[in-house]
From TrEMBL:
Homology family: Belongs to the HIBADH-related family.
Coiled-coil region list: none
The enzyme's E.C. designation: 1.1.1.31
One MF term in the entry's GO annotations: NADP binding
Keyword terms of this UniProt record: Branched-chain amino acid catabolism, NAD, Oxidoreductase
GO biological process: L-valine catabolic process
The species this protein was found in: Corynebacterium freneyi DNF00450
InterPro entries tied to this protein: 3-OH-isobutyrate_DH-rel_CS (IPR002204), 6-PGluconate_DH-like_C_sf (IPR008927), 6PGD_dom2 (IPR013328), 6PGDH_NADP-bd (IPR006115), HIBADH (IPR011548), HIBADH-like_NADP-bd (IPR029154), HIBADH-related (IPR015815), NAD(P)-bd_dom_sf (IPR036291)
Name by which UniProt lists this protein: 3-hydroxyisobutyrate dehydrogenase
Length: 295
């Protein structure tokens, strides 16, 4: 998909999808976009994206359809609507975070209609989407992944083919459970450091250069100061909203239940983030959970 005449339909132009689609347009692709939000559509038009009033209109004539949507039910609805319009063989690339079972079911529907489908959830947050530095974890047939890789290279910095359809979602579920645990651990340790009289700058300097180093500290530091670009310096504007972390942890808990795997730390993180969201913080970056640890 490197031809300058390639047309990409991008469905879901929100905080993540909008900048991803904008990067594709900036690289020379013809991008058709659809979103239910008027503000998202207006922003997309400013980025050179041709916007449409429906999924069907946006995907008409597209060589590939990329989706970035909140849940599996919406992805299924979009793919179903698109399959009625697109030519046979049009590639579907879903960058949403949905369940493994949903990804497999949607793949089966697309395959029956003669179109390839791959699941390609991302890591890197809004900043990574804007900068084109996302990490893609992909599930699907090797030839389909290779066909989509030029698009991933525009939107991201790393692509890992994890296995067949559903494997990308499996990797994303595992990754975000790790992230949730690490963000809680960093919050606990930073609060302990505060109570011991250790400055945030000293904590960050030591831990980010030691065995405790992790993205939750080096990029998403939950205390203002050490990392000026982290959400903590901007009123905890996400970033990665707590509501999305709760959704992803819900997928992880479903996977734990279905597989029988043990994850006491993951289950504790899911409980803590659910409580934090229910207390009115769903709109904040998930690193804001540090404030509950100070109480």
């Amino acid at each position: 998909m490197t031809d300058a005449n390639t047309t990409i339909a991008f469905i879901g132009l929100g905080n993540m999808g909008g900048p991803m689609a904008a990067n594709l347009a900036a690289s020379g692709y013809s991008v058709h976009g659809f979103d239910v939000g008027a503000e998202a559509l207006a922003t997309a038009r400013e980025a050179g994206i041709s916007t449409f009033d429906s999924v069907a209109d946006a995907v008409d004539g597209a060589d590939a359809v990329i989706s970035m949507l909140p849940n599996g039910a919406l992805v299924d609805a979009v793919v179903t609507e698109a399959l009625a319009v697109v030519k046979r063989g049009t590639a579907f690339i879903d960058c949403s975070t949905i369940s493994v079972d949903d990804a497999k079911a949607i793949h089966a529907k697309a395959a029956e209609a003669g179109s390839p489908f791959i699941d390609a959830p991302v890591s890197g947050g809004v900043a990574g989407a804007a900068a084109g530095t996302l990490a893609f974890m992909v599930g699907g047939d090797g030839s389909d992944v290779a066909r989509a890789t030029p698009l991933f290279d525009v939107m991201g910095r790393a692509v890992t083919h994890c296995g067949p359809v559903g494997a990308g979602q499996a990797a994303k579920v595992c990754n975000n459970m790790v992230l949730a645990i690490q963000q809680l651990a960093i919050g606990e340790a930073m609060v302990l450091g505060e109570k011991l009289g250790l400055s945030a700058e000293s904590f960050h300097s030591v831990v980010s250069n030691s065995t405790g180093a992790c993205w939750a500290l080096t990029v998403n530091c939950p205390v203002a100061g050490p990392v000026p670009t982290s959400p903590a310096n901007h009123g905890f504007k996400p970033g990665f909203a707590t509501a999305l972390m709760v959704k992803d942890l819900g997928l992880a808990m479903g996977a734990l239940d279905s597989t029988g795997a043990a994850a006491p730390l993951g289950r504790t993180a899911a409980e803590k983030f659910r409580e934090f969201a229910d207390a009115g913080n769903a709109h904040l970056d998930f690193s804001a959970i540090i404030d509950t640890l100070r109480d």
